[in-house]
Amino acid sequence: MEEYENLKKLVEQVADDIYKAQGGNNAAGTRVRKAMQDIRNVAQDIRKKILELRKSKDDTPTP
Known about the structure:
2 helices, 87% helix, mainly alpha, 63 residues, rod-shaped
């Protein structure tokens, strides 16, 4: 699933800024907060797609 790969990339990209933010870098903290919002949105999209897959599977008649 393309969205999942995107989610993993977003998490990997924010790792350095998380450590910088812990060290007191305010700009890194701002970047982390923005990245977390992006991660949240991508995760929500994945959740919706999984629900759609489940619905389409439930709607398929079984012989």
